[in-house]
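Researcher: Here's a chain I'd like modeled. Treat it as a single chain, no partners, no ligands.
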Amino acid sequence: MTMTRRNFLSMAWVPAVVSATPARLTVPVYRIMDARAKPPADKSRHFRSVIWPEAVRDFAYGGVDVEATDGPGEIRISPADKPIFVGLRRGVINLVMTDHLPMYWDNSRALAGMTTIHEGYHVCVIALDYAHGDRVAFLSVNTCVHEMLHALLQDVFQRPPKWYQYGERESRVDWYATRLWLFRDGRAVRESGQVYLSRLRAVTGSTAG
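Model: Modeled as a single isolated chain. Structure tokens:
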């Protein structure tokens, strides 16, 4: 076959386009509905039909695919008011849905969510009584997206912020959430998320058994 100038340029251009397209990131999420929770029926329906699908869509806009599975579990409270999680899994982001956050974390602040590493498990707790979808860009974004970003952006590996640093960290997460939601830009989230998942799997491999 005769190699024309057009064919040569086409062959040279295609690899450049492919290499310029960042790979998508798949995030494993294990969803647990707290068996002890009693959220209003309308709150549960709104979460299932609006908030969660919206979160999956926002992440997909930025090249992040959420691979979700479901299982049983609950949140118990110890005599010292510390939460005891039943049903968590390692190697995933455990998304625990309950009516409101344990008082040990909430302190009467009516928080919509909390993300942390609890006894080696990576946990996002969503309070259905207060969770919401995307509302105001950079200020009030989807609760699930916000909490999961605290994991993917590796905040969970950092020390809890001081009171004067708390607002800065929350604003940073909302900024990235808005980039996913409105601008479909998830490059930074994917890059950080890849590192996060590598660390998550490394810990899982060393502690499972």
